[in-house]
Amino acid sequence: MTALDVGGLTLENPLWLAPLAGVTVPAVRAFFRRLGVGLTHTEMVSAAGMVMGNRKTEGMVGSPDGRDRPLILQLFGDDPALMEEAACRALALGGFDGLGINMACPMPKVFRKGSGARLLERPDLAREMTTRLARLGLPLWIKLRKATEAHPLSTEAFCGLLLEAGADHLTLHGRTASQRYEGEADGEAVLALARAFPGMVSASGDVYSPDDVRRYLDGGCAGVFLARGILRDPFLVPRALADLGFGGDETLCHPSPAKEIALLLEMGRDLKEDHGERFALVLLKRFVSCMFKGFTGASAIRRAVASEMNWTGLEARLLEAQSSFRS
Length: 327
Ligand SMILES: Cc1cc2nc3c(=O)[nH]c(=O)nc-3n(C[C@H](O)[C@H](O)[C@H](O)COP(=O)(O)O)c2cc1C
Fold this sequence. Notes:
TIM Barrel; globular; binds flavin mononucleotide; 327 residues
């Protein structure tokens, strides 16, 4: 399969790791790149935090070692000038391939301050933000929610304005802000937008199987964002890639539990090194909670891992499980 040129980037395939706050840190991004995604995203990064020189915020920018690239840095904010300054600071730090704007987040701490999906209420502000970031020269990707009748512009009109202002690519999460993460995503709304702007739109929402991926791609989306589906089952990535004919590592489509554990431990050790034991423990438990399904002894292992309170214990449990699955 040949590479794709989309949104100003050349990508190996149309399956991409969505931005996930609290999750898509470098070790997780590298893990999903190993499983085959063609693009990754940072968590949403606060423009205000960047401009204040907050060390933690600056640490969220860019790839430490390139294993997670191509990478889009996603910023959120409500002030176009501040967003531009934040983006300039980020560019000085480097280590990413495109800029993203979050016009999708419905959560109160972002939404109430005028950022995220709130920007759909203020098309002029969204346009100015887009213009300012587009002129910095990196590909500009914008992720947004579906508009409602209460918004000044329809989803399509709002997107037309963003593209005119210089956005290189748009991703529609087919839920409204008030739905948050509940209810079904409106796949038809995403496909209608993809038809309106061919090649410029990718999809987000309810991607849990290779069929869900296909529905969006066959309907004209340029790519598909993987979010909660791969938190439940990371190996959806290689299976969906194989289904699309992107080859990849066939042994990853249905890995043995021992192989799953080897990959998890590699990610976990990276997480511990980058963020410390507590964070590594919490995130790894989250992944383990839905793995090894269908294998004898799997639920006992998941329970044992969940009860571990420190990294050494968790690592020991997983290594024990790995040898029991091998024998
Ligand atoms: C834990 C979590 C964190 C998220 N963080 C972000 C974020 O930082 N930026 C963003 O644009 N979307 C974020 N999202 C939304 C996802 O990228 C995606 O659009 C959404 O989950 C819909 O896809 P799904 O139904 O397949 O999960 C987040 C979602 C979840 C579940």
